[in-house]
Amino acid sequence: MGKEYYRLNPALRSAETKQENIENWLSIQKTDFYHAQVAQERDYCFWCRIVETAKPNSLESYTSMSYTLNDPNTLNSAAKTNFILREDEVLIIHTLAVVRNGQVIDKLNDINVKVLDHVRDENYGNFDNEKSVTILIRDLHLNDIFLIETTIERTYASDSIRNKFFRYLYTYPGPYWAYSNYQWELKNETGQTIEGHYRYFRDESDTILEKEKIVLEDQDSFIIEEQQYTGKELKDLEIAPFIDFATQKNYPEITDTLADLYQQFYHVEIGTFAADLLKDLEALPSLESKIKYAIDFVQKEIYYLYNSSEMDGHEPQAAEVTYQTKQGDCKAKTVLLKVILDSLGVDSEIVLVNYNGDIFLPIYTPSPFNFNHAILKIYIDNHIYFVDATVANDQGFLEKRRKDSFMNYLEIKAGTTLQKQAPFQDQLPAIEEIIHCDVKEDVATFTLEGTMRGGVANNTREMFKNQANKDIISRFNGSIYSNMVLYNKYEQNEIDNHFSDTSIQIIEDNKELNELKVIYKATISEPYLKEGNKRFLHYWDRNYFLNDEAENHHHKDFPLWVDRNSVKMEIHLTVDQSIDQQEIFTRQECDFKSKYLQHRVTKKVSEHGVSCYLNYQTYRNLTLSGKELEDYIKINNQIRNSNWGLGIDIIEDGLFKKLGRLFKGK
């Protein structure tokens, strides 16, 4: 018999939903507040009571609501009420009813409940063992008042760290509903102290308030109650306020618990279950090669299965199981990689990160549930490297692999606290390009030779693997069209009328150095821009050298996050005409040095062309705000002032040009 995901329990129906008591709250329909909200076509809730009861081994979430079905969309949603339940959750239905013409009509006998698998993204191995429980309710009418009362019980597995740590993030309702009475309550029955912190609450001048923290001892409750309430509109460029509840622990105490949990999975003899892997490692000539082989094996040969409930609360899978089944979540893959590296004498520690919520980690109340992903921190030759064992397309020796950007992480090592990954720069340019554009008789022979490294090389390989060659060429055609400013001459859908003999191919792929070299070729007709009788030839690369996000960053609560590739580029524009060698922007060079980036442009100018050399060295994983952001915008604007490419002016035939040829011929 399968797991029961729902059951009916009408015995817990509240008094307000019974016929003899409805007049006590239906009279609200006579109030000015009710009429004002209905006139604005808001959904109206007569009451909403939510009670979260935190217990040592479970969480009970009770909800009681009574609201209007005046809108067809709201009616449709109520008629097929849906819940997404984890494997450890069960839905208890207390009340399903409507009030119609002053009469309570029970709907518990008018339902059909469908329980189906809920798969978030099967293509990427996201299997959460979740169920979609849909309650189909017959014969609901527009303008009914809908009554619903439910409890979701979540019971933690015996090995779940949720038995020791509670966390809940409370956010206020949005502005789309109006409430006669709104109440939210947190009951602490965990046997431990829970603390809560107000985050991003503001005064009337939009200044963030420093409010006193909430402390809930065991058996205490915290209640938010509002009368005649509508949620506040969130202003643009502000984070919505929330209250962050968690068991009162600091990070050293948390890592003590996590380290005890993980240590038992490290002390294994890999030869007892992976003798063939050890044999392969022993045959390799150097430690560098062995580390590469180990990472490649775990990343590419162990299939990644993401299960949020396991990531969120269970002990990691044993390395032996992961090796034998060839599958596991991020913890399982990372534990296996650590065990292999331990056998090679390479020091490493598992760390927890949250790529999407990274910026909030120093703000959140300490909790292991602030994190949703595990990666490996490797110590070797006085350097630190981070490796994500779930990445399947990475290549190269350890120092040549992709480098992920994140600011904060928690090392699973007893007594440690939240740590920061410092901003870093690419050791070698992530992108090197050499562009040749040779124009003769109004036709350009164009070549681009590109060298990509690290994560850029990985992504380029994936592009060639997953896209048709014609689509890749089309993408490059569009970039060249943009960089040569040809959009000022013709529309993008006319590119094929001017670009011919196009080709692109990989000419070298060094998977040890993680370097990929490609060459793109094209013949471009009418490459000049024209203004009156003047002609110009351009090549500017905005994406590589200008950070458009900087000047457009106006968020009050977020810093600007800089994570850009270092780029080295050569642009060689040659023509069969004389050029204006004295034109100020053609000759302009620069050498900008700042705390945040360095950018250098040098040029060689000749009678028939210019060679331009650009070297853009920037930081990754850098956050900027205030004065630092202002300084960064300043240097970005200096680059914007014609220091991100090359343009040349053609000297047209005229009296002085003809005289010059005459004297030159004598």
From TrEMBL:
SUPFAM superfamilies, alphabetized? Cysteine proteinases
- InterPro entries membership: Papain-like_cys_pep_sf
Q: What is this protein's name?
A: Transglutaminase family protein
